[in-house]
Design brief:
The protein is α+β, with helices and mostly antiparallel strands and 316 residues long. The protein has 8 helices and 13 strands. The chain has helices spanning 21-33, 61-64, 82-93, 117-127, 179-182, 185-190, 193-198, 221-231, and strands at 2-6, 15-19, 38-40, 53-57, 71-74, 100-101, 162-166, 169-173, 234-235, 247-254, 258-264, 270-272, 302-309. The protein has a 6-stranded antiparallel sheet. A 5-stranded antiparallel sheet has the order 9-13-10-11-12. Strand 11 (258-264) and strand 12 (270-272) form a beta hairpin. Helix 3 (82-93) runs antiparallel to helix 4 (117-127). The two termini are 30 Å apart.
């Protein structure tokens, strides 16, 4: 079996679909003939928005016949033959059919009913850059951090906090520790921007409002806001008086398409985790994020506001 994943979203799961045998053999033959069009599956451009297509073969069986890795990425904006990668990606998008979520605990049926994914993907493909984009993320030492006492999730990325203030409100910030999210492939693939911003690793690709029965289905500030507030987030115009740590978060929207969250760190900048990709501290222009309102956010043009994420938040 060969599965294709459109790597495009940050908050909601990416769409995946399975190729039939003829389609699978043809695309693998094409990639084998143009190996410079492929890049490692876990190597992305580090941006919000379109990051290419990921092609995976179960147990490497089909790909092995073409001397290809079990998973790789095309049309990533990083290959030595981006033109061929874009051509192959366009063909693959035409085979999409009815996709299912690549990760997360959501039902397959109707998961992308609000979107014309083919039109969206082809539009992003046509506007994708043809030159590599590098990252400037500051990396901490490797190693996972165990869950704090009393935590109801699998872990958080810090064991100590610095108390900071914004206006008259206090909150807690941790040092940037991306390797908590990046060191293990399963952790990176199963946690998204909402997990990162609330600093709760659930391995469920958490969705605002899902834990409390108020999941947002329309990608607009008011809808995603309502889901997060239902989970326990508090708009930053209101202070959270007790129950630390209280994280400082920011929400942005790709109108009618997706959402994205950031979290402030004690280092003075903001970190984020675009979908299934690595946690980082830079924007689409490779600049460290000191203000999410002015950062290059690609298609996430609507800035919704700032929030506190209290310790009592429930996310799933």
């Amino acid at each position: 079996m060969v599965r294709v994943t459109l790597d495009i979203f940050s908050g909601r799961p990416n769409p995946s679909w399975v190729l039939n045998e003829r389609e699978a053999r043809e695309v693998l033959r094409q990639v084998a003939a143009h190996r410079e069009a492929a890049t490692p599956a876990d190597q992305d451009r580090g941006v919000l928005g379109f990051r290419g297509l990921i092609i995976e073969s179960d147990e490497g069986s089909v790909a092995a016949g073409h001397d290809l890795p079990a998973s790789f990425r095309i049309a990533s904006g990083q290959s030595g033959n981006e033109g061929k990668g874009l051509e192959l990606a366009e063909r693959l998008i035409s085979t999409m059919g009815r996709p299912f979520p690549a990760t997360g605990a959501s039902a397959h049926q109707g998961a992308f009913a609000d979107l014309d994914l083919r039109t969206l993907a082809l539009g992003e493909l046509q506007s994708a850059p043809s030159s590599p984009v590098g990252g400037v993320s500051t990396l901490a030492e490797p190693g996972e951090v165990t869950a704090m006492a009393g935590a109801t999730v699998l872990g958080t990325d810090a064991s100590s906090w610095t108390t900071l203030t914004v206006g008259s409100c206090s909150y807690e910030a941790s040092a940037f520790n991306p390797n908590f999210w990046n060191a293990k492939r399963t952790t990176m693939r199963n946690n998204n921007c909402y997990n990162y911003a609330s600093n709760r690793r659930t391995d469920t690709f958490a969705q605002p409002g899902r834990a409390t029965g108020a999941q947002a289905t329309t990608m607009a500030c008011s809808n995603v806001d309502a889901g997060a507030v239902s989970d326990g987030a508090v708009q930053a115009s209101t202070c959270v008086g007790s129950g630390s740590p209280r994280h400082y978060m920011a929400l942005v929207i790709w109108p009618n398409t997706d959402y994205h969250w950031y979290r402030h760190h004690s280092d003075g900048f903001w970190g984020h985790k675009p979908g299934q990709t690595a946690a980082r501290n830079y924007d689409n222009s490779n600049n460290v994020i000191y203000d999410p309102q002015t950062a290059n956010r690609g298609g996430y043009t609507s800035f919704c506001g700032y929030y506190f994420g209290p310790s009592g938040m429930q996310i799933l």
